[in-house]
Amino acid sequence: MKTVAAKPWQASLGSRRRLFDGVRWSRYPWGVLALAVLFLVLGATLVLSMSRVDELFQRDDVRFASHLKKVAMAAPFLLLGVLFSPRAGRKYAWTVYAGAIVLLLLVPLIGEERNNAKRWIPTPIRFDLQPSEFAKVALVIVLARVLHVRRMTKLSDWFVVAGLALLPMGLVMAQPDLGTALTMVPIAVGMAYLAGGSGRVIAGVVAVGLALGVSAWQFQWVQDYQLRRIDTWASTFEPSELIADKNGQSFHVYHARVCVGNGGMDGTGLGDGLASRAGYLPERESDSIFCVVAEEGGFALTSLFVALYVGLIVLLLRTAAAIRERFTRLVVGGVALYFAAHFFINTGVNLGLLPMTGLTLPLLSTGGSSMLATFAALGVALGFAAQQVPSLDEDAFKD
């Protein structure tokens, strides 16, 4: 019998079919994707509004074209997450983690220094790479790989989790970037809990961590600028202290609280807030974008925004809970913790509940590396959730 060779277009079509064979689109978390797109549109709208106001007042602080380029560069990572299978994730988890560590080690050697911190690696395509952002995603993947075979019942399990988290944390803190390093703590602790860690042990770990944090402040184990931020935060709970130092160390804190308070119940309206018009609020398009939401949307719309963002985190956790295969479940749960850590730290800082630190609000803030890391993490989580992987783990047989 004569065999007819497949034409190139037929082979290509067959390849694409095999590529998506493991994806069950009925299980794809469309609700999570819809909320992510909603926040992306909201962020773009706010940045566009700030950019137009800047043009009106002849400023060049916020540029919408730059934000749009970053979104265009990051968007494929969100859409192509389905191409990365859970099997590939387990196989290359250590490679991803090692790559992130290598990039962090390169920062002191070839990194670019800005504002007394060396956190960025320049690239030929006018995109400054911030390895600490990708280290958080790599931590999620490698912890899922390790906890895939560990149940957090032995002391050695805790040491492994701590070691994997402390290595990138230490390298990031040395840049120095304490805020980014601290986001890895809830990710690691939360994933240990999702993997079966005892709540009492985790409470003890948190208590020890808080005690070490207070000791670091009291005995000045942290760097001078970090100590000043903590002292400023502690002193500005008194309105008189905050106002007296509004042009000094409390500049950012003062303008953040003024913008949030100026929103009132109904908000000032898009582009009509002090953050946009006066332009005094630092990093209003990135680290402080929540203040813009609070001022221009007011208490009512900001409450809705908070509810929807928490809903995104809850939906991711519910998606993880419905997955039987342990590695996939831990990755999706870890990505939920990634969003939760960023959200609660960012909003806490902008509301004055936490010391000032630079941290973006995923999907809203502008920022190249942050946006790439966020889209990659979310894309992998959604893609994993839609792929069926046979599992003989004991967890797979639990209700």
From TrEMBL:
Q: Name one GO cellular component term.
A: plasma membrane
Which principal EC class is assigned to this enzyme? Answer: transferase
Q: Which reaction does it catalyse?
A: [GlcNAc-(1->4)-Mur2Ac(oyl-L-Ala-gamma-D-Glu-L-Lys-D-Ala-D-Ala)](n)-di-trans,octa-cis-undecaprenyl diphosphate + beta-D-GlcNAc-(1->4)-Mur2Ac(oyl-L-Ala-gamma-D-Glu-L-Lys-D-Ala-D-Ala)-di-trans,octa-cis-undecaprenyl diphosphate = [GlcNAc-(1->4)-Mur2Ac(oyl-L-Ala-gamma-D-Glu-L-Lys-D-Ala-D-Ala)](n+1)-di-trans,octa-cis-undecaprenyl diphosphate + di-trans,octa-cis-undecaprenyl diphosphate + H(+)
Tell me the keywords, alphabetical order: Cell shape, Glycosyltransferase, Membrane, Peptidoglycan synthesis, Transferase, Transmembrane, Transmembrane helix
Entry keyword annotation includes Transmembrane: yes
* Compartments it resides in: Membrane
GO biological process assignments = cell division; peptidoglycan biosynthetic process; regulation of cell shape
In alphabetical order, the GO MF annotations are: lipid-linked peptidoglycan transporter activity; peptidoglycan glycosyltransferase activity
Q: Which parts pass through the membrane?
A: 28-50, 71-88, 94-111, 155-172, 178-194, 201-219, 298-318, 330-349, 361-385
Q: What is its EC number?
A: 2.4.99.28
**Membrane topology type:** Multi-pass membrane protein
Q: Report the superkingdom from the record.
A: Bacteria
Q: Which family does it belong to?
A: Belongs to the SEDS family. FtsW subfamily.
Task: Give the protein name, as stated in the record.
Answer: Probable peptidoglycan glycosyltransferase FtsW
Q: Which organism is it from?
A: Rohdeia mirabilis
